[in-house]
Structure formats: C-alpha cells, structure tokens
Amino acid sequence: MLRIEETKSRTYDERMADAVAAIPILSEEWTDHNPSDPGITILENLVLFEALQGNQITTINDATRRALLKMAGFTPAKGKCARMLLSPGEGGRYHLQANQRFVLGDLVFETRKAMDVGGCHLMSIYSMYDGEYHDGGVLLDRTYSIPFKAFGDSPKVGDGVYFICDSIPEAGEETSFYVEIESRADRNSIKDRTDNIFAEFRWECYTSEGWTEIKARDYTGALLSSGEIKLRFPEAEYEIYRGLPTEGYCIRAVLTKADYDVKPRLISVDAFLFEVWQKDTRAVSVISQRSDRVQVKSTLANEGYVLCFGRESKGESYRRYELVTTQNQNGRYCLYERGENGSFSLTFDKRIFGYEPARVKDAVRLVLYTEEVMRQYHVGRVLGYDGQEMELPFTHIVPESFCLIAKRVTDEGDELFDFVRPGVKSDGALLYHLLEESGRMVIEDAGDFIGAELYIGSLAVTEGPKGNVRAGNRFVAEGLGRDYYNPGPGCGGAFREKTEDMMERFREDVYTPYTCVTARDYEEVVAQTPGLCVKKVHAMMDELQNVVHISVMPGTDEKYPKLSEEYREAISATLSERRLITTRFMILPPVYIGVSVRTTVYVKRHFTDSREQIEERIRQIVNYMESDKNFGDVLTFEEVYSGIEELPCVEYVYELFMRPEGLGHAALRESNIYPAENCLLYPGQIDVEVITYSR
Asked: What is this structure's pTM?
C-alpha cells in the first residue's frame, strides 16, 4: 500500500539508491551500474517520474480541496456587505437618492434605493404595568445608560410599552426601531431571530377606530436582546392619543405572552431609522422603461461619465447611443441636458436623429462611471476556451452589484451590446463566475460571445468585516451637509469564505457532537440549545435503565433559577432530534441546598479583616452556583479546610464543622457532603470564630 508519509519524505537520491541496490537481486547479468550505462539512464528517468508522481499525490490544489469539501456538504459562505441603521436627525421630511454616500473615515455606506426619511420623531416613552404608567424618558437621552425596567419585576400579559411621536410614517411605509438592552445573561443564538420563545408582542397604533394592529418583525426576542424592530404602517386615520402625560401619535407594544426568563431592562430606544450598506459604488447601471425621455438623478452623475444604450426591438441586444448637446446630427444620438445636484435628462427623437429606442421592456439602459473606473473599464476579449480567466481592475467586489457589457460586431459591422451578470445560464449566454475577493472572473462557457469585448457595466466594492463598526459613530452625508449617527453596530459584513476557513469549519463540525452518545455529548448539546441561557448542565447515564438524567440550571435573574416549561420544551425538542433512538432522557429540575459551616480559626496579628476574608473564602468554595462546581460534585472537608488555611491571615484552623441544611437531596458522610445528581450547593449559615494567635 502506498504510504503518504513515504511519498513526502523520500527524495530522488534515496529512491535512486534503492533502485540501484535492487539490481543485483533482480538481474545477475546487469553488472554495469555507472551513469554511462543506458539501463541506468532509463532507470533514472523512471525514478524521476515516480518522484514527480509522489509529489503530485501529496500536493492538493485549492480547487481540489473545495471539491472535496463540497462533497462533504461544505460550500464557501458568500461575501456580504455590512448593514447598519442610521438616524435621520432633526427637521422635516427629505429625500435621499439611491447610492447616497455616508462617510466614516475611509469607509463608505450607501442607500440601496431612493427613499424619503425624517419628519417623524420620538417624543416620550412610557411603560404600563401594575396598573400604572412609568416614565421612560431616560431612554431618549444617550448621555445616560440607566437601565429602565420595561415591565417591572413581574411582567404580565397586557403590560405594554408606549411610544409617543410627533408624526406617523405614511401608509405602507416600513421603518425601523433600534432598542439597546442591558445584557445580563449569556444567551445562545437562534437561527430565526424573529422566533420569540418566552414572550410576544402585539404592535398597535392609535387611530380613529381605536387601536389598530401594525405588522412587525421583532429581532429582539420581545426585548430580550439588543436589536431591530421593523414596523409597517396600515392605511388608517391616525389620531392624537391623550391617555398619557404627553400627548401625541402613539405606537404601543402589548404583551400577549409574558414568560420571560430574564426581565427586560432597556438602555436606549431610537426610532424611525433607515438602512444603509457598506459598499462603494464605482459604476451603476440604470434601467428606464421610457423610450422618449429619461431623467436621472445620481451622485455619480456629477462626474459626467455616462454611456447610453437603447433597445430597438423586443428581445434584441442593445445599441449604443452617443450623448450630444445639439440637434443638428443624424445617427444614434440622444440629447443630453444637465441639471443640478447630479441630475440630467436624455431625449430620444427619431424625427431629429433618425433612431430611437422601441417601446419595450427595459428600453433604455444607462451606465454611470467614476473617473477611476472609466479609465480602466475595458476587461478583455472572450477567446472561446472554457476556464478563461480575466483580471478585473478592482478587488473585494460586491457580487450582486456586478455586471459586464459584452460588445459583439455583426457581419455587417453593427455593434451589439448585452448586459451579462455572473452565473446566469441560458442558451448561447456568456456564463462566468466571479472571484470577488481577488478581483478575477472565470468564463465557464463562452456561448455565442466568442470574440466579444468585455467592459464593466456596474461595480461596487466593499470592505467586508471592516464595515461591522461599533455603535455611536458620526457619519457625513456627501452633498447634504448633515451628520448622522448609528444607534446600533454594523453587522453581517464578510468576505467570501476562504478554503482555509472552510477546512477549519469542517474540522469543528467533525468534533461537534450531533448525535448524543456519551454524557458529555448530552451536556454540550443542551448547553447550546438555541435561545436559552444555560448556566450549568450535568448528564448522567443510567446503563441499566438505558436513560440519561439531565440536570439544568438556567442563567436567569432569579436567586434560585427554576426550570420553566419553555426551557423543558426547548431542551426536549433539541434532544429528541439528536438522541439515539433506543435511548431515553429525563430532564431533572435543579435543587438548591444550603451548607452550614462553623469554624474556629487562629489568625495572625495585624490583620483587621480576618473574619471577612475567611467568610468570603468559605462562600467561594461552597457556592456551586457561581463556581466551576457542577451538579452532584462532592464538597470535601479537605478542600474547605485547606482553602481557609491558605489565606495569608490564617495561622491554623482549630476546628471545622459543615453540614447540609436539607437532607433530602444531600448527605453527610465522613465529614464530606454528597449532593444528589440534580443538586447544587450554596452558602447557608456561616459562623466564624477568630482568635488572635500569640506565641
């Protein structure tokens, strides 16, 4: 059998020496082993070929690694632009163009589409629980970070949060709130961020017909974690709500389910935000359905590099139209008139120029370039062989924003233009894929485009994970003279996953238990149950009954956390998918037993806080809820005794007694305490007598 280690380590000289040494064994007649012998020459070539084969066997290129990983179900994660929410600031409603740029240092964020923002402002916030309204105005002041209890200490169905505004967005418009929550628990992530396990809201606004429901997508888990809440407003006649100390248009979130494991505490609320994406558009393609006059407003138009294409019959390729400023020419021309603030218009008239686009779908297509792209927008020629690779002038390209213009010349000399996006398959199409991070493209099938010249048709670049900026930055909007800030961090920014990262993900997956077999497997799976805060978990196998006992301590804000029905259901659902079909499991509720400790200790002189130090050390050792100790771990007399004696203030421990305060779930044997398998210990009554030691 061929050993990979041997092919790696054996050099050509070693292989040749072994081959020459084998000649006398295989042939008595072959006695001349000098380099001049023709047989040795042939042998040298064969050995060299073997060495090259061995090197090829042990050398796996990047494409092969990706193919092997794909067979195992691992494909590279796509690159993404970071997304972020911005506050529109004070003042009335105003318009933002598509690709409006917001700058932070060397980072650029952009809008994806034209939109109207502003004009709506949050004036006051109130919460209602225990039959009273509570003023949450502190949530609107970002200079303070004072936690606000949204529903007190005992949330109930019917409790709510009321947002008072000076205006309401238009019907059908979607807006976003961002809520910052005080983080007091380590909660596992959940795949569907709108899946609220413990609580649910009904979002409403006040109208002439009373409270009218609003469509909402809540990414905070009903105020359990910081995040976004998207609201879409219905057709309605909105009215001023006068049931609160502050009057105004009112939006409220009312609890329809209130089984919180951690009670919500809010830090801040920002409303009526709009989204931007971390990308820098260098060339943009604009499509118009009108064939007579096209009006465009874009930040890129200020640079003045525009190409125009028109479709003169349905389903055919585009023709190039030149921009002119006078009407005394004949040919494929359009009248270019420049306006203000990045606007311009193009007029097509067959009576004047002799040509115009037809009234068909996507009749006119414009491409606006920056000067940087215009100087290097030619990519190359399609040569016709599969796998042709071309260098692009930019790296870290946003795949969704990229397209090529393919120019072909007919036998009659006419130029035809087609816009081609990556990965689009059809008969005769130019099929290529983009290597966006390195700025290359690979043609998989040239189709009917052999000999075509390729140009950049649209392009944006991104900084990937660099766009995941922290919250609270100030952005400058180009051309608007306004400052904006982001109440939440940028998120989601990433480059396309590298092969090395895929291999690391594969290795992690191999060592991550999916099917629970051992007790350790059960503990890891339960600890990672989506949406839960699991602080401690312990699994014990009962081989005779073929059942696994699982003890769980939730990481909630209760002094002695109980295992709620929501936790049981979520854990059971997870384990039911992952257990062996022949193995049963039983989820045990946590039990907490106090430990009483009485000790007499001789302490050194000059220590004034000896008693406090000793009590604190005992509490640290006995407190299983806050230490590395787990369910069922034995508390030994020796560890308490030595823990006290190690203190610098202690001369020696004279006597020590400890016992569990409840015998139902813990036993005292030979001065050691043995908790039950679902029992955690905590400090009970601690009595410390200190005596100053004197020689």
From this structure: 0.83
